[in-house]
Design goal:
Blueprint: H1 2-19, E1 22-28, E2 34-40, E3 42-43, E4 49-54, H2 58-65, E5 68-74, E6 87-96, H3 99-112, H4 119-122, E7 125-138, E8 144-148, H5 149-152
Antiparallel strand pairs: 1-2, 1-5, 3-4, 4-7, 5-6, 6-7, 7-8
Length: about 160
């Protein structure tokens, strides 16, 4: 029973992340204080969060110094009571993609965010992934589950 519920929660968490257009990215400032910013999101086929970030942004500067980060996505931003809506927080380390990795990732991101296509050509943007170490998934009041990397990642 427990295993089935966990698998169902993991599947629902992957669907929530895959459907999100944006999320709140938490990084660590140079002085140790937290910084949370809104970023556009896509997901790779295995569920890994994909972001296109400006080299000039404070969160990117933070990531270069300390790659630990957390990402929060919400299931229904228009819910009358946001505390009853599904939400997912994943944490891990952010990594900049190599040229070879970008070839597969860029079309995924552009399909979800067509207006961002010129950013990495004309502006100072680069593709990053959040290498998930764990997740906290809340499907509403009293429905919380911790998920590990192996529980979370996988095709939908």
């Amino acid at each position: 029973m427990e295993n089935t519920e966990k698998k169902e929660a993991a599947h629902a968490a992957r669907l929530l992340l895959a459907g999100a257009l944006a999320g709140a990215l938490g990084t660590i400032n140079n002085d140790g204080s937290p910084l949370v910013t809104l970023v556009a999101l896509a997901t790779l086929p295995d569920g890994t969060p994909l972001m296109l970030l400006s080299d000039l942004a404070a969160h990117t500067q933070n990531i270069r110094r300390d790659p630990r980060a957390s990402l929060l996505v919400e299931g229904d931003p228009a819910a009358a009571d946001p505390m009853t809506a599904a939400r997912l927080s994943v944490h891990g380390r952010i990594a900049c993609l190599s040229a070879a990795e970008i070839a597969g990732a860029k079309p995924v991101f552009i399909q979800k965010h067509p207006g961002s296509e010129p950013y990495d050509r004309e502006l100072d943007f680069a593709y990053y992934t959040l290498e998930i170490e764990g997740a906290r998934f809340n499907q509403g009041f009293g429905r919380f589950r911790k998920l590990g990397r192996d529980d979370f990642l996988g095709t939908i």
